[in-house]
Design goal:
By secondary structure, the protein is α+β, with helices and mostly antiparallel strands. The chain contains three helices and four strands. The protein has a four-stranded mixed sheet with strand order 1-2-4-3, covered by helices on one side.
Amino acid sequence: THVYMFSIGFPPALWISLAEMWNRSTSPYLICFHSPKDVVDYYDFEVELLDKTPTSMHGSKEGHTGYIYRRKQRSNRKASSDHTDPFFAPGIDVVNKG
């Protein structure tokens, strides 16, 4: 239903890989701790910002802003409840083949 990333401290190379995986996937929601300036403008995630909220870590005074994004709709994307996310398809094929 969603992808959650405790994205504090992720290096740029990881962000690039995550953006490529996200843009191939079909998950509808992304939750992370980076603003649209990074997620959308810099790393090209195909999302739109829904909301943001302040957060704090239990047991510490460290606080961050959590951002909730929704996947941008593409006209060529099929909407199907039994569609396999392309990212997971190879693994599912291996399991199904026994």
